[in-house]
Every structure is written in C-alpha cells, then in structure tokens.
Design goal:
343 residues, Aminopeptidase, 2 domains, 15-stranded mixed sheet, 15 strands, globular
Length: 343
C-alpha cells in the first residue's frame, strides 16, 4: 500500500510547522532529560545563514499537516590537513500517532534522502548526534546496512559529555587568582575583531586527532551574531585576539517546566591559558545572573584543556552524547576531539 505521507523539500517559510512538530514529538521523547523550547527565531538561526540554500530541510506531510521532518546542515571541516565537505544529520522526527507501517515507510524515505546526499560528489562525511542509547543507535545502523548503500564499516563513534560550570568553584578560582584575572581585559567583540576571531576559530591545535569546523566571515557572523541574544566576548592583547567565548541564553523544557541556561558553544584560546579561560567564563556567568539562568552549560568541551576545566569547576554532567561519523573511505577515524556545533 502506498505510504500516505508525501515528502518534499521545505524552506524557512515552513519554520512554524517544523517548530510545532518538534515541540510535540520532542516533549514526548525527551521531556525527562530536557529539550530546547524551539522558538521560531532560534530555528531560523539554526537552519538559516549563508548556507541556507545548501541546507536540506526534508519534510513529510499528510494533506497539509507536517508529520515527519529531517534536516541535513552543510558544514566544512579541516581534518588532518584536509578540507572536507559534509552535513550534520539532525532533528529526525516522526509523529508517533501514525501506524507502525507508515512510520517505517517515513523512516525509509528519510534514509533514502540521507543516502542520496551522502553518495553525492560533494559530500565527504555525515555527522549525527544522539543520546548514548546503544539499542537505538544499533537499530539505526542495521537499517542503514539493510536499506542503503552506505558503508557502516566507515562509521566512527565518539562519546562525549555535556559540561556544566559550577559557579562557586569558578568564582573561588577567580578570587584566589584575582591579581592575574583582573589584569585580563575581557570586552564585547567589535566589528574589527572578526578577522582575528575567524583566524583563531579556524586554526588547529596540538591535538592530532581533531577536526575543526571551518567558517568564512559571513558564516561566523551568522553563527555568532545571527540572533539578538547571542554574545561574543574577546581577549585582545597588542591588537591580537588571544581568546573568545561565544554564548547565549536558551530555555530548556524538562518535566513540563522551562528553565533558562546560558550555552557556551565555543570558547577558543590561542594557547591553553587557564586564567584566560576563567576570565571569559566569568562573563558568561555574569550573563546567567543577569537573565536569571540556572547556570552555564558547555555543549562541547572536548577541545579544551581537561585539567584546566576541572580547576575552574567545568565538570561533566550525567548526560553523555555520541557523535557518529560516516566518512567515505574511512577518512575520519581515531578522533580525539572536535570543534563543531552540536545541533
């Protein structure tokens, strides 16, 4: 029997329907651990920007009602000295009220879309992020193996924790090292700073097994300044940007209640300096206090100095995530850390 769900490409004009679908399904699936409030301007920021025409928003409708959705967001990375192009696979959603056969048919159509993009000439890798739930990931791998030509042998998993900043430990460190911290000038980023910010963001580190998202000036400005609540603070010494932190407040819904957190998405330094890190984090904590947030969360701290993080009260939470990477010819493997957004 023909699947009642008709799939097609969506645009930013469909954000309202996408939001309603995500809210209803994610409330049921992730209500206990928490999920973003998915305001329309937040989704426009995620799915928009200079590459909005390269992002793929894939939706399934019954008549005019959106009942299934999946997005592939274009990204460019640097890994082992090579530039690679690919996509983040994210927000795969199907309403539970459909019959089991219809849900399965939706999943197969989404897998077919993923396969088509992955096997195209301009795609070297495919990233996806999920909770550390082995049975779900194994099921998805089995479906990929059975219904697509994607090679699961080329998949690589990297586990990582979400981190919280324990405010009292950070402020204790800042107080005990006040002479050094107070000499560090942290200020909001200005237009003239973005050349230095881009250079620092795209630069490598001492870790060999790492990949780094690459952004042009337009991409970085959208990512850092594409929403009015986002902030970027910098440390500049003798005209050179030595570090920056990009962060923003976000409402998380858990058990039906909304709580605000400040999300520190990127804290990048030109070298591992704990005092620089402390000074930048202190500004994020100040914003949390200003907007009434519960605290500061790191979505991805794999690239930061582990020992320095602990000293400053940056501690892993119970929430552990998996980044799964499909790369052609096993291009990406033995990964130690990554500098890429977690969507």
């Amino acid at each position: 029997m023909k699947c009642p769900v008709q799939f097609s490409r969506l645009t930013l004009e469909d954000i309202g329907q996408i939001r309603n679908l995500l809210l209803s399904v994610w409330r049921a699936n992730y209500g206990k651990i928490g999920f973003p409030k998915f305001e329309e301007d937040y989704l426009e920021w995620i799915f928009g920007g200079p590459h909005k025409d390269r992002h793929i928003l894939f939706g399934g409708k019954i008549q005019n009602e959106l009942v299934a959705y999946h997005s592939l967001l274009y990204r460019k990375i640097l890994y082992s000295g090579k530039f690679l192009e690919g996509y983040i696979s994210t927000h795969l959603t199907i309403v539970p009220r459909l019959s089991s056969q219809a849900r399965f048919d939706c999943l197969l159509q989404m897998l077919g879309n993923i396969e088509e993009i992955y096997l195209s000439a301009n795609c070297d890798f495919l990233l996806s992020f999920s909770e550390e739930e082995k049975s779900v990931r194994d099921l998805f791998k089995n479906l990929i193996l059975k219904y697509t030509k994607m090679d699961v042998k080329d998949a690589y998993d990297l586990g990582f924790n979400q981190f919280m900043v324990r405010t009292e430990e950070l402020l204790k460190y800042c107080k005990e090292n006040a002479d050094a911290i107070n000499r560090i000038q942290v200020r909001d980023a200005l237009e003239k700073d973005f050349g230095g910010i881009i250079k620092l963001f795209n630069s490598g580190s001492n870790r060999k097994a790492e990949f780094i998202m690459q952004m042009t000036e337009g991409e970085l400005k959208h990512h850092f300044c594409g929403h009015p609540t986002h902030r970027t603070t910098v440390i500049e010494i003798q005209g050179v940007i030595k570090g920056f932190n990009n962060y923003y407040p976000l409402e998380i819904i858990r058990d039906g209640n909304a709580s605000k957190y400040v999300i520190s998405e990127y804290l990048i330094l030109d070298h591992e300096n704990i005092d620089y890190m402390a000074a930048l984090l202190k500004e994020a904590v100040n914003l949390a206090v200003e907007v009434g947030a519960k605290g500061v969360v790191f979505e991805n701290a794999t690239y930061l100095d582990r020992d320095g993080c602990r000293v400053l009260g940056v501690k892993p939470t119970f929430r552990r995530m998996i980044m799964e990477i499909h790369s052609k010819n096993n291009l990406i493997k033995d990964l130690d850390s990554f500098r890429c957004d977690v969507k």
